[in-house]
Amino acid sequence: AQPLTITKMKKMKQDRNPITVLTAYDYPSSKLAEEAGIDVILVGDSLGNAVLGYDTTIPVTLDDMVYHTRSVRRGALNTFVVADMPFMTYRIGREATLRNAARLLQEGLANAVKMEGGEDIADEVQALVHAGVPVMGHLGLTPQSINQIGGYKIQGKLEQEAEQLLRDAKALEAAGAFAIVLELVTEPIAEAISKELSIPTIGIGAGRGCDGQVLVFHDILQYSSPYREKRFVKTYADIGTTIRSAIGAYVSDVKTGAFPEEKHTFQLEPGTVVLPHL
Ligand code: KIV
Ligand code: NA
């Protein structure tokens, strides 16, 4: 398949062809996602929670993102890859934002970056777009502001919240963003925003009215321990249980001598004499 472009994503919205997005953080996961036919891979800063063992995305660094984005690219040469701008690598002035985004494209080999925020980051979004960096917005629950928000709460329940969300979405579209993630937004508000915009919305916990969906790799596969159920996630496998029992079987095989077997070993050619002193 031809790699996706931001123009084709806009067309997909018009055609009501849902855009499928999954996160990935390394080579094997991105390779499997590409082989499975995903439209877009997001190297999310959920890296912090899913892979690095932090309880928020705040400790994730630009170096972390560059390293993981590069390995994702090596596994998915023909897929559109978006990389998250981590906490405080933007909102810190236009020049620093441009330089930091450049690293994700030049060193990480991403096609685009994603940033959390609306009207308040519109000028930085516009500067990036003018510099040739496609930007995906991210509104609703924005985990980089978790210390300010105070919890992983549903957004867009109150009328003034909903109105601000719409203003933010419009500001991102006007600034040149090519798509917007809506995270934990009530279904009616996410649907209304999607109808107001010409660029696609990608929902996570934002219901059926979005133009695409995104979920976290480790969530749909239950690849964590403990696995914590989330209402907005559908799980498609229980890899955590599979991995734990497989490792348990390996441990038990070595302890009992069931592994290795003869077929796992290397023997000498008949007649070969080595180590004669033994
Ligand atoms: O970091 C991430 O995985 C994200 C998605 C949940 C949208 O930002
Ligand atoms: Na993120």
From TrEMBL:
Keyword Transferase recorded: yes
Record's subunit section: Homodecamer; pentamer of dimers.
Pfam families: Pantoate_transf
Organism annotation: Paenibacillus terricola
Purpose: Catalyzes the reversible reaction in which hydroxymethyl group from 5,10-methylenetetrahydrofolate is transferred onto alpha-ketoisovalerate to form ketopantoate.
Binding site for 3-methyl-2-oxobutanoate: D45, S46, D84, K114
GO molecular function, one term: 3-methyl-2-oxobutanoate hydroxymethyltransferase activity
Enzyme class: transferase
Reported cofactor(s): Mg(2+)
Keyword Membrane carried by entry: no
Family affiliation: Belongs to the PanB family.
Main localization, broad class: cytoplasm
Reactions mediated catalytically: (6R)-5,10-methylene-5,6,7,8-tetrahydrofolate + 3-methyl-2-oxobutanoate + H2O = 2-dehydropantoate + (6S)-5,6,7,8-tetrahydrofolate
Record-linked Gene3D superfamilies: Phosphoenolpyruvate-binding domains
Positions contributing to Mg(2+) binding: D45, D84, E116
SUPFAM superfamilies (UniProt xref): Phosphoenolpyruvate/pyruvate domain
Top-rank taxon, per record: Bacteria
Protein name per its UniProtKB record: 3-methyl-2-oxobutanoate hydroxymethyltransferase
PANTHER family reported in the protein's UniProt record: 3-METHYL-2-OXOBUTANOATE HYDROXYMETHYLTRANSFERASE
Active site (catalytic residues): E183
EC numbers for this chain: 2.1.2.11
Location in the cell: Cytoplasm
Keywords: Cytoplasm, Magnesium, Metal-binding, Pantothenate biosynthesis, Transferase
Textual note on the cofactor: Binds 1 Mg(2+) ion per subunit.
Pathway assigned in UniProt: Cofactor biosynthesis; (R)-pantothenate biosynthesis; (R)-pantoate from 3-methyl-2-oxobutanoate: step 1/2
